[in-house]
Amino acid sequence: MKVLIVGANGQVGKHLVSFIQDHQDLEAKVMIRKEKQASYFKELGAETVVVDLEGDIPDIAKAAEGVDAIVFAAGSGPKTGPDKTILVDLDGAVKTIEAAKQAGVKRYVMISSYDTTREAIQSADSSFAPYVVAKHYADEWLRDTDLDYTIIHPGALTNDDGTGKVNAATTVERNEIPREDVARVIVAVLENNATIGKEFQVVKGDVEVKEAIDSL
Questions:
Q1: In whole angstroms, what is the distance from residue 171 CA to residue 169 CA?
Q2: Closest C-alpha among 113, 115, 97, 95 to residue 105
Q3: 181: exposed, middle or buried (C-beta count within 10 Å: 0-12, 13-18, 19+)?
Q4: pTM assigned to the model
Q5: Could you give the C-alpha distances from 216 to 43, 79, 106, 184, in angstroms and in order?
Q6: Which residues, other chains included, contact 130 with Cβ-Cβ below 8 Å and sequence gap of 6+?
Q7: Antiparallel, parallel or unpaired: β 165-169 and 207-208
Q8: Do 62 and 80 contact (CB within 8 A), yes or no?
Q9: What is the pLDDT, as a whole number, of residue 76?
Q10: d(C-alpha 2, C-alpha 157), whole Å
Q11: What is the largest CA-CA distance in the chain?
Q12: How high is the mean pLDDT in each 10-residue block of the chain (216 residues)?
């Protein structure tokens, strides 16, 4: 399976590319914003394509040509304002979903936020609310398609070393999760077609990733 990774230059994305390139049944195609970001991925043997997520849908669709799945792992980051949150986390996600349709790519994995419900929007503080709103509507857009989607809701992301063990279910108690383990979860989702049409929360835990995903 060839996988286009949108947001590959992010921390989760880099772990994911590494895991995919070491996987006998998966192959990464990396979408990056600048050519200078390519060397890291070329050293891993991954195909790279330079496309700005703030560009147009046909450009993203062209990047998706020849792939079997898309993983949306992009994010504006905590240091940007609400404008970038809307342009990347919402509009970038929607454009990538529409690009998947144009390119005929059915499998789509969305890395969302831990809680994107209407209740989460209402309870979020003013600085975090735009991010939750963006993720809420991006998730809604994806649910309303006929794509073979999976939506992953990770807990608070850390740079701790991954353990390969998680707690995953429709709802779990709020907790942290290493970015490395989020990448492992994505791989397990790609391996398992039973995750199509499902969404779940995932945090650090004591169950092996594959077992946790297989039990959803």
A1: 5
A2: 97
A3: buried
A4: 0.96
A5: 35, 34, 21, 15
A6: 82, 85, 86
A7: antiparallel
A8: no
A9: 78
A10: 26
A11: 45
A12: 97 97 97 94 96 96 98 82 90 98 98 96 92 96 98 97 98 98 98 98 98 97
Please return the burial class of 182, using the count of CB atoms within 10 Å of its CB with bins 0-12, 13-18 and 19+: buried
Q: Is 137 a catalytic residue?
A: no
- Which CATH superfamily hosts domain 2-155+181-190? NAD(P)-binding Rossmann-like Domain (3.40.50.720)
Measured from the Cβ of residue 87, the count of other Cβ atoms closer than 10 Å reads 16
N- to C-terminal Cα distance for the chain? 22
CA distance 30 to 49: 6
Alpha-carbon distances, residue 26 vs 14, 67, 68, 155 (angstroms): 15, 11, 10, 26
Predicted pLDDT at 78? 61
For residues 111 and 154, the answer to whether their CB atoms sit within 8 Å is yes
Give me the helix-helix angle, 129-143 and 91-103, nearest 10°: 20
pLDDT value for 24: 96
What residues contact residue 171 under an 8 Å CB cut-off, 6+ apart? 201
The domain ranges of the chain are: 2-155+181-190
Query: One of 108, 114, 131, 137 is an active-site residue; which one?
Result: 131
